[in-house]
Amino acid sequence: MTNGAQALISTLVDAGVEVCFGNPGTSEMHFVAALDSVPRIRGVLCLFEGVVTGAADGYARIAGKPAVTLLHLGPGLANGLANLHNARRAHVPIVNVVGEHADSHKQFDAPLDSDIEALTGWSHSWTRRGSSPDRIGRDAAETVAAAQATPPRIATLVLPADVSWGEGRGPAAPVEPVPAAAPDPATVAEIAKILRSGERAVLLIGGAATTERGLVAADRIAAATGARPLVETHPARLTRGAGVPAIDRLGYLAEQATGQLDGAEHVIVAGTRPPVSFFAYPGKPSDLVPAGAQVHRLAEPEADIVAALEALAAEVAADVAPRGAVASLPELPSGPLDVRNWVQVIGALLPENAIVSDESNTSGVFLGAATAGSPRHDVLSLTGGAIGQGLPVAVGAAVAAPERPVIALQSDGSAVYTISALWTMARENLNITTVLINNRAYAILRMELGRVGATEVGPKAGDLLDLSRPDMDFAAIARGFGVPATVATTCEELSEQFRAALAEPGPHLIDARIPSLF
After folding, report:
1. Count of CB atoms within 10 A of residue 435's CB?
2. What are phi and psi of 486, to 5 degrees?
3. What is the CA radius of gyration of the chain?
4. Cβ atoms of 157 and 91 closer than 8 Å
5. φ and ψ at 249, to 5 degrees?
6. CATH number for the 342-513 domain, one of 3.40.50.970, 3.30.470.20, 2.60.40.1080, 3.40.50.1860?
7. pLDDT digit string (tens) for 439-487?
8. Surface-to-core class of residue 511, CB atoms within 10 Å of its CB (0-12 exposed, 13-18 middle, 19+ buried)
9. Nearest to residue 430, comparing CAs of 398, 400, 461, 405?
10. How far apart are the C-alpha atoms of 317 and 398, rounded to whole Å?
């Protein structure tokens, strides 16, 4: 006879789920035991739930399908919420399995009891509570289908312990997700007319449109009409490098974005939202659409955004070929590391077909220019702004694509949120090279002090933005988690260590020490 946990896992596998990132507890023990009865699924242990959810995000961005997370009751889910927030903003499919007390135990309000559905609602998750061992297979199949809707999303299955251990009917057949809607011909024709009018337009793309097909279509449209193409500020997955159309990202700072959008009479959005400021600032607008400009939505989120862009390109740029970035590498710099030259080392040595998990934040402001002509690569950025994403996303990406080199460009302040991801890298022997940019400060907050007008800063305020006293030895921390590590203070050292790390299998960390930009 099959118990509920076995039926659940078999159903997940039959629906195409191959990996479970987990940090389980007592309520999930039957799920854990059932992993051995379904050999087609891989279990990956993470030491903190924020690493679990971030790894599932990185996996989905590269694999294009969901992994499953295994989380222990409401507190386990709560620990993973920050990176589920980033995953929601990335529009990726994730299947959460959250253990729950047995139904008969709920009445006693045991210490770990909580309102799990309140937490799933906070993360905008589609949610299903397992009701019986007989039904759990069908519940699992519908959860996977919900995660793979258009746009993809987080889907959560709450698994009571008695549903897990009870005898049931076995696995259920996969459920087909709702397909993406086809582009609306009338909308495509209307926007084509606007683009032919000669009025100044910006084409802002995001979501699924930031990989090659979407970039090619957007570049053709821009070449034919003079519209300015821009990629959303924090794309989930952006394909870049030699041979790929080089389209600028919308600036993070409102002042940068305002300059890029200045003069636009039309803002056409595809796969993203109209631009807004990341935060509110005294005396400055939150809405970054230029005054008087009209916003046009090429396709709603439920539609096939890439197909809509290609239909628009067929209307206005039928005879226009895409323009790929020219291969060109920066010169290898020399001397002490700083915020400008460390990115030149990465740009000069970036391997072909790399995956870059970028959470370098203020230290990476010059990264895009330094890598524009590097070999083709994919960049995974901080979609929701909740720091602590970079290392877990690198873990998931490496599990999804073991044949590709993964480069984690990681700021120091963000790294400590989920530093235990290094242990999972070591345990799974993942090919991840982490370049940890160590400026011993929350530099972005130092910058924001002036931007929000908080100019009266004394020693107490300064202490909340400083990461020294004591300085953190990230090379020693990495070695403690089982990851070989070195320290670089010069361009020559970073170049030598980066080359060596890429040449060896398994994870490596380089503690790259630079002065703060702010």
Report:
1. 26
2. -135, 170
3. 24
4. no
5. -90, 145
6. 3.40.50.970
7. 887 666 666 766 776 766 777 777 777 777 888 999 999 999 999 999 9
8. buried
9. 398
10. 37
Residue extents of the structural domains in the chain? 4-165, 185-316, 342-513
Cα separation values, 71 from 46, 53, 365, Å: 11, 9, 35
pTM for the full predicted model: 0.96
What are the distances in angstroms from CA 279 to CA 137, 270, 284, 451?
Answer: 43, 23, 10, 10
Query: pLDDT tens-digit profile of 373-419?
Result: 999 999 999 999 999 999 999 999 999 999 999 999 999 999 999 99
Tokens 């030149």, residue located: 344
What is each CA distance from 320 to 182, 221, 222, in whole angstroms?
23, 8, 10
At 239 the three-state DSSP class reads: strand
The two domains 185-316 and 342-513 share their CATH topology (first three levels equal): yes
By C-alpha distance, which of 112, 139, 108, 113 is closest to 126? 139
End-to-end Cα distance, the chain: 63
Nearest Cα residue to 510 out of 344, 346, 332: 346
Q: Which of 276, 295, 300 minimizes the C-alpha distance to 286?
A: 276
Q: Give the tokens for residue 457.
A: 């800063």
For residues 181 and 462, what is the distance between their CA atoms, to the nearest angstrom? 51
Beta-bridge partners for 128: 157
On the 0-12 / 13-18 / 19+ scale of CB atoms within 10 A, 236 is buried
Distance in angstroms (rounded) separating the CA atoms of residues 172 and 142 = 10
Whose structure tokens read 């530093």?
419
When the candidates are 3.40.50.11320, 3.40.50.970, 3.30.300.30, 3.40.190.10, the CATH number that belongs to 4-165 is 3.40.50.970
CA distance 149 to 290: 33
Inter-CA distances, 264 with 229, 290, 292, 464, Å: 12, 7, 9, 40
Torsion sign, CA atoms 189, 190, 192, 196: positive
Q: Which residue has the tokens 């070695």?
A: 479
Q: In one letter, which amino acid is 25? A: G
Provide the CATH number for the domain formed by 185-316 in this structure: 3.40.50.1220
Q: What are phi and psi for residue 98, nearest 5 degrees?
A: -110, 115
Per-residue pLDDT of 234-271, as tens digits, reads 999 999 999 999 999 999 988 899 999 999 999 999 99
Provide long-range contacts, Cβ within 8 A and 24+ apart, for 383-386. Answer: 383/86, 383/87, 383/89, 383/90, 383/234, 383/235, 383/236, 384/85, 384/86, 384/87, 384/88, 384/89, 384/90, 384/234, 385/86, 385/89, 385/234, 385/278, 386/82, 386/83, 386/85, 386/86
Length of the chain: 518
